[in-house]
Specification:
Elements lengths: L3 H34 L4 H6 L2 E5 L8 E5 L4 E6 L2 H9 L30 E4 L11 E4 L5 E4 L6 E3 L21 E5 L2 E5 L3
Length: 191
């Protein structure tokens, strides 16, 4: 039979060993339990539907074409002349000047139809036959986009001009997007 001091020592070591095992299990289980209760922030939930695109190489007056899974989006970097023409365009020349009949996110600046007046982000198809538009300068000197199906003309905010095309044509569609920073565009993958 072991002596009493040896028994006390054995009891203390046994308790310490059980305590260390318990602490080890507790510490190793923390990541498991924290992952069960971890939720995505609202921003993470929104951003997982967006794809990031660098537009830093884009120059004024040029277009960057971005292919999404089921559609194409163009980013037009407006010239200073384009911005001035949008500001001074007479509403009676536009089919839907306030874009009430057009598809676009509600947060857009009304006259520019964009979150940033320097850039116009849009789907380059007219609304009736989905004919693709092309960059064009009209005989009146206005920059914009034209299409050959109905001979429609759109200004650099994608607004249909009344003198051109079919009266049923709507403004060019603007997809949902955000800016991560000044040169990174986040496009919604869902259209």
């Amino acid at each position: 039979m072991p002596s009493p001091p040896s028994q006390n020592k054995r009891l203390i070591l046994s308790v310490l060993l059980k305590l260390l095992i318990f602490l080890g299990l507790l510490i190793s289980s923390i990541p498991f339990f924290s992952s069960l209760f971890q939720t995505d922030s609202d921003e993470d939930k929104v951003l997982k539907h967006f794809s990031a695109h660098d537009i830093s190489a884009l120059e004024r007056g040029s277009i960057q074409k971005i292919k999404q899974s089921s559609f194409e989006v163009w980013v037009y970097y407006r010239t200073l002349q384009d911005i001035e023409q949008i500001k001074t365009m007479q509403h009676n020349l536009l089919r839907d000047p306030l874009s009430k009949l057009s598809q676009q996110p509600s947060a857009m600046l009304p006259e520019f139809r964009s979150l940033n007046k320097d850039y116009f982000v849009f789907v380059p198809n007219e609304s009736m036959k989905q004919c693709q538009v092309q960059p064009d300068q009209s005989t009146s000197g206005h920059n914009g986009f034209s299409e050959v199906c109905y001979r429609g003309f759109f200004d650099t905010a994608g607004r249909a001009l009344t003198a051109y095309g079919s009266q049923q044509q709507k403004n060019l569609m603007v997809p949902a997007y955000q800016w991560r920073d000044e040169k990174t565009l986040l496009l919604d993958r869902r259209l």
